[in-house]
Amino acid sequence: MTDFKNAIFLDLTLVHDSVFEDMVNPLLPEGETVLFAYHTLRNGVLFTDRRILFIGTAGWIEKRRDVTAISYRKVLAFSLETGKERHKDSAVEIAFKGLGKIRLEFAERGSVPALCKLLSQKTL
């Protein structure tokens, strides 16, 4: 399970959801769709219409994978941070009930406003 005490996903890049298809499809019930998929060198974050999936890999050949799924109902609050730094265009922090918080730093800003809109809709 993802550690939510000081979890940070750095340089997230928007990718097509097929990157995680083989790993995530067995976990998704009929009708659940991936809306946003982000990837780092070893990790990933997927936002579906029902929940958030955090994917972590470990080991030299990245054979061990961990997928943590959290419902939007567990989101207490989220914040958006934008900046002009070259390596950190924007970041979103999400606080979860009973788990702690996680920080997502995005390499590009393009999809972040739409992601924040999704979080707003799902947490009302």
Explain this structure to me?
The protein is mainly beta and about 120 residues long. The protein has one domain (about 5-124): PH-domain like. The chain is about 15% helix and about 45% strand. It contains two helices and eight strands. Strands 5-4-3-2-1-8-7-6 form an eight-stranded mixed β-sheet, covered by helices on one side. The protein is globular, with a radius of gyration of 14 Å. The two termini are about 25 Å apart. The mean pLDDT is about 85.
Give the helix/strand layout.
Elements (H helix, E strand, L loop, with lengths): L6 E8 L6 H4 L9 E6 L4 E5 L2 E8 L5 E8 L3 E8 L7 E7 L3 E7 L5 H12 L1
Fraction of residues in β-strands: over 45%
**CATH class, please?**
Mainly Beta
Strand order of the largest sheet: 5-4-3-2-1-8-7-6
CA-based shape:
globular
Rounded mean pLDDT score:
87
Nearest-angstrom radius of gyration? 14 Å
What do we call the CATH topology?
PH-domain like
Task: Examine the secondary-structure arrangement and name the CATH architecture.
Answer: Roll
Topology as a string of helices (H) and strands (E): EHEEEEEEEH
